[in-house]
Amino acid sequence: MSVCHRRPIHSASRHYGGGLRSSSRPRQAVGPCFVFRGDDNNVKRKSPLDEGFDFAKEIKAAGGGWFGRKKQDGEEEPRRGSDVRANATVGFVDGILGNASVDVSFERKVKCAKCKGEGRLPRTVIKCPACDGTGIAAEEKAVTVTIPDGGVRHNQMLRLKGQGDSGVPSPANDGDLLVTLCVLYQDEPKETTRDAEGNLFTSVSLPSTVLASGTDALPVTLVDGTKGTLKVPSETKDGAALRVRGKGAISDKSVSSSTARGDHVFVLRACD
Ligand SMILES: [Zn+2]
Predict the structure, then answer these.
(1) Measured between alpha carbons, how far is 46 from 52 in angstroms, rounded to an integer?
(2) Where is the composition biased (Basic residues) (predicted)?
(3) How many angstroms is it from 122 CA to the middle of ligand 1?
(4) Residue 63 Cα, ligand 1 centroid: separation in angstroms?
(5) pLDDT tens digits, residue range 2-58?
(6) What range defines the domain where residue 252 resides?
């Protein structure tokens, strides 16, 4: 289970158009993220230990000992550790704006501390009871992943160098941790929804008389907390949309290098 943390936010100065005034971004309560798609332990990668993986066979095939083959002088040949994959869930506003962090727990393979990766107790032929002779141990680890300022795409992957399986020598050749960020939309602010292009939709209820007459100053709040006003033309129909460009989320479909954002769309509804 991942836990969202919100860092102190700099006083925001987000302007839109001529009618908006900026305000500081509201502080979010620190609380647990809901696990996306029911993933129980928030770690996508299954441990080979849970799958009956035959470590002894692998070790034998590799020439015995820890992960790498040993050279004639007894030194282990360098070998890079495998990358480890994990999932993390990010809240709605954190995913859109970034400047937050999330804790991720995962499991990685390391050299067994008891037998130092030999698989046997020191100076004996007795199989190491700690690792069952494999020389490999599973280590539970937790890291804090920074959500970059400006937000992330849903399913965006972040690479954390050197946090994966232990390599030879460690830590210089340790693998990486690949964290896939699932941006939660179940906890989106009330009455705001979004689509796959990153557009946000907020319904605004107005008396039909106001829609008919129009107004120069309809108060609205963007998802980052910026408050401002929008102009509603006269003779506006129920269901009309006012679009604030580029103030939505990053599109799920954008390529990894792109940070193109959708719009924040205010849908006007007659409330009488
Ligand atoms: Zn051992």
Answers:
(1) 11
(2) 1-13
(3) 10
(4) 16
(5) 554 544 333 322 223 333 333 333 333 333 332 222 233 333 333 334 344 444 444
(6) 192-270
The CATH number of residue 202's host domain is 2.60.260.20
pLDDT at 68: 56
Confidence category of residue 67, pLDDT binned at 50, 70, 90: low
Distance 143 CA to ligand 1 centre (A): 25
> How many whole angstroms from 141 Cα to the centroid of ligand 1?
19
175 and 227 share a domain?
no
- The confidence band for 225, taking pLDDT boundaries of 50, 70 and 90, is confident
Do 152 and 199 share a domain, yes or no?
no
Least-confidence region, from 43-57, 122-136, 139-153, 235-249: 43-57
Cα–ligand 1 centroid distance for 100 (angstroms): 39
Six-digit token string for 26? 């509201």
Distances (CA, A) of 240 to 193, 220, 233: 16, 15, 10
What's the half-sphere exposure (Cβ side, CA atoms, 13 Å) at 115?
23
Spatial separation of the C-alpha atoms in residues 53 and 228, rounded to whole Å: 59
Please state, rounded to an integer, the average pLDDT across all residues of the chain. Answer: 77
